[in-house]
Amino acid sequence: MLELKHELKLSKTRDEKARMNFVSGLRAHVLNDLANGMRAVYEGDVEPGFRRSAGRAPKDGPEVHKAIKPNEYFKFYSSLRVTAQDMVWQSVFPPLERNRDALKSKAAALSKTKRREHGPERQSERGSLTLQPGFEVPRYVSAIDVHLMAGNYDGEYEANDLAAGALYDNGLAVFSFGLMGQNLDDIGQSIAGFIRLKYPHLKPRKILDLGCTIGHNTGSWKDQFPDAEVHGIDVAAPCLRYAHARAEAQGRAIHFAQMNAEALDFPDASFDVVFSSMFLHEIPKKGIANIMREAYRVLRPGGLMLHMELPPNSQLSAYDAFYLDWDSAYNNEPFYKPFRDLKPEELCRQAGFAPKKYVQFVIPSVGWYGEKVWSEAATQPREVDNDKTGRLTDGILWYCFGAWK
Amino acid sequence: MSAARKTSSKGASKPKAKAKPKAKAKVKAKAKPTAVADTPSRQPMRRTIRGGRPYFFADPAIDKLLNMLVVLGSEVWTLRERLAALEAIQIRQGGLAAGELDAHEFSAENEARLAAERKEFIDSLFRILQEQVEEARRR
What we know:
The structure holds two protein chains of two kinds. Chain A has 13 helices and eight strands. Chain A is an alpha/beta fold. Chain B is flat. The model of chain B is unreliable at 1-37 (pLDDT under 50). The longest helix of chain B is centred in the middle third of the chain and has 33 residues, at 60-92.
């Protein structure tokens, strides 16, 4: 299990650490070993059976899903994956519940501190937190426990609560079994760094991260572009409170604000980069269209919109489409498949971006592959790799798409 | 939305029965330190998933048993890590030499006692099968 490396880290007993280690190991086993096993069972058993009765191979994810559903291996894989997912959060609750006072006082102290570990030349720079009393959280967040996380991002259990943010941070550390980086920022580091390498002339003054939750991937933009003013917005107050304290603990000046990405409070043409990660797949289609339009509106001409996401079904084999859609059917991710059924280039065009300004990247995880392979990708474009793109597995590759305004 | 609702409605009546005692037990065991917290309006965090969870086997009891087995596996692992920590501390403090635990042989007396206890343990593990045997013998 990955240990968080900032001051908000929960104190845990020896047994609590061991339980987290177990769940991380279980997840790695399910998502690597059992996932490979399920593919073998599909290829050797399920798919040939389908061919015998239908005279052809399954044409898409839903057909694969229907064919594999009665298979015992699928049932064990799925049941164990749900159990592991639940155990991720259950392993965090006991230490989190015990640490809630300590967490609150640490967060309060951090938002007052002036210490800067990163970039000592910018010691005067501070981050900020802006919440909106009476803010209305959209139903697609307030009504479900996404990825089986009880309480979701926005659950609050006392005044000025930030426990949901801590649940997410500590849960991700268990969930990701090391594949999301030592600071859970591999997505941000891989992508922001890639953009800096690929476009050396890009000098963003203002960067916006949409649906930033605890800001774990927002900070990477500050690291890569230290002169830029970096903003992160989200609808969930407890995550934002935690994000602010977390960024201060890490010495990064980030401005967090409670806002709905569908209706941003920022003026037109005010940002050079608008980014999101693992965000659009949690939004219904209508909301996605609004978000894309808002991204277009707040971008300056020449600015870049970039969304890190799961790869679209149109770029995956039938089996791999099924494999990623599993979450939509069984992991409380109701908008995950509908999003992945959309065509990213059309989403950009509909929002006002010129088709020739569309971009798509498949970026090797800098943590997994190391700097050499990762940096080479800036000059050697990669296609979507069915087995590894957007999938939490050994050799992970991050997918992102967007457009220049 | 429909996918989540569909999967959850399948076991909607049952998961609560399973989830509740588990959550209750944990709250009982762990909530005490927070009871002295200075915030009277603080609620414990909710630990059960809204809408329940999906089940995959024809009988959801199999999914639930599998879950129990894995949770038990987690506790077995936790004990092993604790034992490893204890052994490491003992070695560091000089109470145990490296490899001493693995090389340890029980005395004949200890061995006999352990053998009896092991037999008792195994009997109790499979006691449920014995019930059927005893019923058959009574007939």
